[in-house]
Specification:
Elements lengths: L11 H6 L8 H10 L1 H21 L4 E9 L19 H11 L2 H11 L15 H16 L5 H10 L12 H15 E5 L5 E8 L2 H58 L18 H30 L5 E5 L12 H26 L6 H8 L3 E6 L12 H4 L4 H14 L9 E6 L6 H14 L4 E5 L6 H7 L18 E2 L6 E3 L1 H6 L5 H13 L9 E5 L18 E7 L5 H13 L4 E9 L10
Parallel strand pairs: 5-12, 6-10, 6-11, 7-9, 7-10, 11-12
Antiparallel strand pairs: 1-3, 1-4, 2-3, 8-9
Helix pairs in contact: 3-6, 3-11, 5-8, 5-9, 9-10, 14-15
């Protein structure tokens, strides 16, 4: 039978024409999540661990609130002038809030409650990382009953958890500044909406302390206003008193002059001048001056009286409308809220890390990646079979003919048979980018499918560097140099329990069949043989991998087509690109890529 072996190199343009750009669909999104589900779960677990660590090592704090009302007051000169509307603007309210947050109010509260010397108040609300780990250690001890364990005590002593921290000796000024800082950190003053009410909240480790400090802050603000008004009234009263003395003296002098003028019964107090004219003021002028001083004196006397009354009973422009009480439940931490936040943060982190991995991951994980970057079609996707590091079962299609793997391999066989070639595929080669691929198991199962469909099949183990197929089918000590009695002429062996024949790698190596001319001559002799046992319908070559070197792949140029086997998620795109270039350089017809150990199959290959 005459056979012409093709020397065809498919153009990249023709291969690119068969594929097009695809949009991201629901299958791509679900595939992304399935592919990186471990990363997302790990990020979620880490977030929950951090949240649990925070919840278990953070002391509960309590927040107590009191409210005061700022009341605008009318000036004295407007109180008798009818109805007047007076309001406070935002700047005035913010000024009052600034006063409440000032160190003056803080010092008044600290001094009243003696907080600078209170060890519980001066305890930090946010423990250090060392304290958190010590608390976790205590929780573990109590949970597992390791308190009296000698080994655990040695471990704690070795890592320094049993070493007591010596408190630093602080001066009175340092203690005051520390208490001031803690007070201002725990105080929160806010305006209630757009009203004149101001909410004063304080957060502390003890609920009773939180309530007492909040109330003391409100009282200190009211007291500060009263003291400020009393001091201002005192200073104003002192000034008015001095001014009254001056006005009294001036009024008495003016009245004395007027009285003296009346007692003399003339128009002059000191007599006439030398020119006969009157240079002294008249009686009317003296009386007017005296009346003016008298009215000024009476006005200042009234102001002085008001000032004295304010000193004796000053009234503040603020009053407490709601007193603080001890809260029944802690305000922080909130375990449920923190866990919810951890879930959202962990999910975002997991998706972000997965996206980064996906961006920088150039391993083969989809037919689309192969088609878009290499211009080569994917002829099939085979799911993962076997356990651990096993490269795959060589008899999967016999053991489980209806499995998803068997179905996918049948579909791949159909795709290979329908490949655009000048004639039907009879001489088929399979190669791979790496030595640890599932190429040998794929060839064994593919040969079994061809045989089960009625085609007499021969498998040639041409991977002389790593004869995995020969070793797995015949065993390491059987049949490599003792061919079957009825196939002695060409050294072909009938594989036990398999429906196809095998040419072992030892024969390929001995006959140097990796040289294209030698392999072509061997196949010609095989086709010309008049024995029915050698009338093969399909010949499958287990070709060397890319790691064996480009020279060993030249034999693919005499075949009808070669399929490249790539492992899903492990074979790098550039490695597959290198294998493609090597085959194209030797003018080997490439039929496509067969993905193995696929964990996220496309929708077209998910049917079992």
């Amino acid at each position: 039978m005459d056979r012409v072996f093709p020397h065809r190199w498919p153009a990249a343009a023709d291969q690119l024409a068969s594929g097009g750009q695809e949009f991201i669909g629901l299958s791509d999104i679900t595939g992304f999540f399935k592919r990186y589900i471990a990363t997302i779960i790990a990020a979620l677990a880490a977030a929950f661990l951090v949240a649990a660590f925070y919840n278990s090592t953070t002391d509960s704090v309590y927040t107590a609130s009191t409210q005061i009302l700022i009341e605008p007051r009318l000036p004295q000169h407007l109180q008798d002038g009818g109805e007047v509307t007076l309001s406070l603007d935002t700047a005035q309210i913010e000024s009052q809030i600034a006063v409440m947050q000032s160190e003056k109010i803080a010092a008044m509260v600290l001094g009243q409650l003696k907080l600078a010397d209170d060890p519980k108040f001066n305890q930090p609300q946010a423990p250090s990382l060392r304290d958190r780990f010590k608390k976790i250690g205590t929780i573990v001890i109590q949970a597992f009953g390791l308190k009296d364990s000698a080994l655990f005590s040695k471990v704690r002593k070795h890592v320094g958890l049993d070493v007591a921290e010596t408190p630093a000796t602080l001066s009175e000024y340092e203690r005051g500044r520390r208490a001031m800082s803690i007070f201002r950190d725990g105080l929160d003053v806010r305006r209630v909406g757009v009203s004149y009410a101001i909410d004063i909240s304080f957060t502390a480790l003890d609920p009773e302390a939180a309530a007492s400090i909040a109330n003391a802050t409100a009282d200190a603000f009211v007291r500060e206003q009263i003291d400020t008004k009393a001091e201002a009234a005192k200073e104003g009263g002192a000034w008015l008193e001095t001014r009254l003395e001056q006005l009294r003296t001036q009024m008495n002098k003016a009245m004395a002059k007027a009285q003296e003028f009346r007692s003399r019964h003339d128009y002059s107090v000191s007599g006439e001048g030398g020119d006969g004219t009157n240079s002294e003021p008249t009686l009317e002028e003296l009386e007017t001056t005296a009346e003016t001083y008298q009215k000024m004196y009476e006005s200042f006397l009234q102001a002085y009286t008001n000032s004295v009354s304010q000193q004796s009973y000053p009234v503040a422009d603020a009053r407490v409308i709601t007193a603080a009480t001890a809260p029944l439940s802690p305000s922080a931490p909130r375990p449920k809220l923190i866990l919810a936040f951890a879930a959202v943060a962990g999910l975002i982190l997991g998706i972000g890390l997965s996206f980064v991995r996906h961006t920088f991951d150039w391993t083969i994980k989809s037919p689309r990646l192969i088609r878009d970057n290499l211009g080569i079609e994917c002829v099939g996707e085979l799911p993962h079979i076997g356990k651990g590091r096993e490269t795959g079962r060589v008899d999967e299609v016999l053991r489980r003919p209806h499995s998803r793997y068997s179905h996918s391999l049948r579909k791949a066989r159909t795709e290979i048979s329908l490949s655009e070639t000048d004639h039907p595929i009879k001489f088929l080669g399979l190669t791979a980018a790496s030595d640890d691929s599932a190429k040998s198991s794929v060839i064994s199962n593919l040969a079994t499918l061809y045989s089960m469909s009625g085609l007499k099949t021969l498998v040639i183990d041409a991977d002389v560097r790593q004869p995995t197929l020969t070793m797995r089918l015949l065993g390491p000590l059987r049949g490599l140099d003792r061919p079957c009695h009825d196939l002695v002429r060409l050294n072909i062996i009938s594989t036990p329990g398999r429906p196809f024949d095998l040419l072992p790698s030892s024969v390929v190596k001995t006959k140097n069949l990796l040289v294209p001319d030698n392999m072509e001559a061997f196949l010609s002799d095989l086709a010309a043989c008049d024995l029915a046992a050698y009338a093969y319908d399909i010949v499958i070559l287990d070709l060397p991998t890319l790691a064996s070197g480009p020279d060993m792949l030249k034999v693919g140029s005499i075949l009808d087509g070669v399929v490249m086997v790539a492992e899903w998620g492990k074979t790098h795109l550039e490695t597959l690109r290198g294998l493609t270039r090597t085959l194209q350089t030797s003018r080997t017809p490439i039929l496509g890529v067969l993905l193995t150990r696929v964990r996220a199959m496309t929708s077209a290959n998910r049917k079992a």
